[in-house]
Amino acid sequence: MPFFFQLSLLPECVAWSERALTQLAPSSATPLALQLQTFFAMALMYIDNSPAAHAALVQALQLARSLEDAVSQLLLLIAIYRYKLHRGEWRELRDLTSRCEAAAGRVEDPFTTVIVHSMSAVTCHYLGEHVEALRHARVVRSSPAHSSQLNANAFIYAPSVVALHVQARSLWMLGYPDQAVEASRETIKEAEDLNHRATTIWALVHNVLDYLYTGEWQTAEKWIRVIIAEAPTYALTPCHSIAIGWQGVLAVRLGEPLRGTKLLQTAVARLRAEGYEGYHRVLSGELAEGFLKSGATVLAHTTICEAVEQEQACGPSCHMPELLRVKGEVLISIAQSDRREAEQCLLDSLRLARDHRALSFELRTGMSLARLWAASGRCDNALDLLTSIYSRFSEGFQTLDLVSAARLLDELRSRTISNS
C-alpha cells in the first residue's frame, strides 16, 4: 500500500487496501490491520472528503489507540484535522490542533515540533489571526532539518510546504502582496522538489489564489491548466473542481462574467457534493460577484446570503470580511434595497478586516465603502477613509487592488476639488 500511496495511485490504494482488509478477521487489532486501515482512509480522504472517509479515519485512530501506537495516533489526528479543514468546520480547528499537540508530546521525535507549528499556522490563518499565523510559519521555515521517521512519512503534507503557503497567504492579508507572490512561487517549487505529484497539485490549488488576487493572470492561467490536466490522473477530483472554480474567477476578472459564472456554478455544485464546503463558500462569494457583473442581481443576492449564513454557522473565519464586502456590493446594486443595510455590511466587513489585521481586505472594503459614500455626496469621508488605508501599504503598488485604489483616490480628489 505505501507503494501506491507514494506514487499518488490513490484509487489503487483504496481498492487494494480495502480488499486486504476484507481478508482479516473483523475484530483484528494488529499492526497490519492498522496499516491497511490507515492507507485506505487516507487515500479515500484525498479522493473524496466524504463522511465515509471520516469514519474510516476514526476507525483507524481507534485501532492506533488500542495498539498504543503514538506515531499513528498523531498522523491520524492530523488527517482528521485536514478532513475538518476541507469541510470548512473552522470552529473545530483549534481543539484539533491542541489534540495533535498533545499527541505530538507522546512521540519522541524533534520533527513533531515542526508539525505542531505548521498546524498552528494553518489554524491561525483560517481563524483570521494572520500575525500569529505568520509567526508559526516562520518558526517552521527556520527550523533545522531533522533526521526523522515522520519527515519521510507520506501521510504528512510536508509541513515546510504548508508553512510556506500560509506565509504567502498571511503576507497578502497583512498587506505585502509582492512578498506573498514570491512566497507562492517558492511554495510551488518546493512542492515540486518533493517528487510527490499529489502534493504538488494541492500546492498549486492553494497558491493560484495569490496570483488571482494580485492580477498575475498569465501565471494563474498556467497553473490552472496544469491542475485541470493532471488532477484526474491521480483521482484528485476536488482539485479539479477547485481549478474549474479558479478558471471561472479568472474569466470574471477578465470581463467574461457569463462564462465565468457557468464555470463557478459547476465548481460550487461539485465541491458541495465532494464535501469541500470551505472552498464551496469561498467560490460562492466569487460566483455572487460574477452574477452581479452579469446583471443577475437576484441570483447574486441569494448566493451571497447563503454563503454568509453558512460561513457564520461554522465559526469565525478569515473569509468573512470578503464575503460581507460582496454582500454589501450586491445590496447596493438592488434598487429597492435599503442603503443603510448595505453600508452596515461594509462597515462590519471593515471592522472584521481590521480585527484580523487584514490590510488587503480592508483596502477592498474601503474602496466599496468609498464609492458608496461618494455616491451619496460624502466625498470627503470617502477620501479620508481610502487615503488612511492606502497610505499604510509599503509595496505592491502595481498589483490589481492597489492600482484600482490609486485610480479611485484620483477620482475622489478631483470630485472634492470640483465640489469646493
Explained architecture:
Helix content is 77%, strand content 0%. With 420 residues, it is mostly helical. Helix 2 runs antiparallel to helix 3 and helix 8 (130-142) runs antiparallel to helix 9. The model has no long low-confidence stretch (mean pLDDT 92).
What are the key terms here?
Serine Threonine Protein Phosphatase 5, Tetratricopeptide repeat, 420 residues, 21 helices, mainly alpha, elongated
Mean of residue pLDDT? 92
Per the principal axes of the C-alpha atoms, what is the gross shape?
elongated
CATH architecture of the domain at 1-107: Alpha Horseshoe
Terminal-residue CA separation:
75 Å
CATH third-tier fold name of the domain at 1-107: Serine Threonine Protein Phosphatase 5, Tetratricopeptide repeat
The fourth-level CATH homologous superfamily of the domain at 1-107 is Tetratricopeptide repeat domain
> What is the gyration radius calculated from CA atoms?
23 Å
Number of helices: 21
Low-confidence stretches: none
Instruction: Encode the helix/strand succession as letters.
Output: HHHHHHHHHHHHHHHHHHHHH
Number of strands: 0
**Beta-sheet strand percentage?**
under 5%
What structural class do helix, strand and pairing data support?
mainly alpha
| Main beta sheet strand tally, sense and closure | none
Oligomer: single chain
| Helix coverage percent | over 70%
Quickly name the level 1 CATH class of the domain at 1-107: Mainly Alpha
